[in-house]
Design a protein that fits this description.
With 235 residues, the chain is an alpha+beta fold. The chain is built from nine helices and four strands; from the N terminus they run βαβααββαααααα.
Length: 235
């Protein structure tokens, strides 16, 4: 495995301080999970803005780090046993960062696996389904006359929101204590605002979910991280 400075990605997004963890990302729900985790955990890092167009994510330099051509990805020169590690997939990255820092993922097996099940819930359900909702409700799919796909993802979004609403009964965070599960889930719930889909999925009829998202975004680390890497022209 090559060092940060010798990795192909460094020719396009050069590290200013190669001793720090390098984040290659864009402030989408998947991207900000990692910047939020890094800020919450206090891990020194550099953030590099990787655009979502093929020019960036399908460039040879980025593909050398993530063959799946999706943000986020990281290079940590101070990985396991002092060796460099390169990772993609936000869920894998957050689990790694939690273990590296010893924070937000309990060492107690009962709590640990309950946290990880909600990480998987986001990766396998909430994120993909809300992403499809956005495509068929706000973006290109919204032009389709056949409402089948749009109605399917509206219905699935409602079902998933009901799952989260029930899980939050009587507690502030998804597994009781604040954890990487919250860093995974809350940014995707917040994406409903960007999609303009809150009304259609009954977001305002819920009690726990809106309060949860507000509570999450009131955290100083989240406020700082929500636009990292910064996008020119965006607040």
């Amino acid at each position: 495995m090559t060092s940060v400075t010798h990795h192909p990605i460094n020719t396009r997004w050069p590290a200013q301080d190669p001793s720090k963890l390098q984040l290659y990302s864009f402030p989408t729900p998947n991207g900000v999970k990692v910047s939020i985790a890094l800020e919450e955990m206090g891990i020194p890092y550099e953030a590099h803005l990787v655009g979502l167009t093929d020019v960036d994510v399908k460039s040879p330099e980025f593909l050398a780090l993530n063959p799946n051509n999706k943000i986020p990805a990281i290079i940590d020169p101070n990985g396991p046993n002092g060796t460099q590690i390169e990772l993609f997939e936000s869920g894998a990255i957050l689990i790694y960062l939690a273990e590296k820092s010893g924070q937000f993922l309990s060492a107690d097996p009962q709590k640990r696996y309950k946290t990880l099940q909600w990480v998987m819930f986001q990766m396998g359900g909430l994120g993909p389904m809300l992403g499809q909702l956005g495509f068929f409700y706000k973006f290109a799919g919204a032009a389709m006359e056949d409402p089948t796909a749009r109605d399917r993802y509206i219905g699935e979004a409602k079902r998933l929101l009901a799952v989260v609403e029930k899980q939050l009964d009587g507690q502030e965070w998804i597994v009781g204590d604040y954890s990487i599960a919250d860093m995974m889930i809350a940014p995707w719930l917040n994406a409903l605002e960007f999609y303009g889909a809150k009304d259609v999925v009954g977001y305002h009829d819920l009690k726990n979910v809106p309060a949860y998202v507000d509570r999450f975004y009131a955290r100083p680390a989240v406020q700082k991280a929500k636009n990292i890497p910064p996008v020119p022209g965006h607040d």
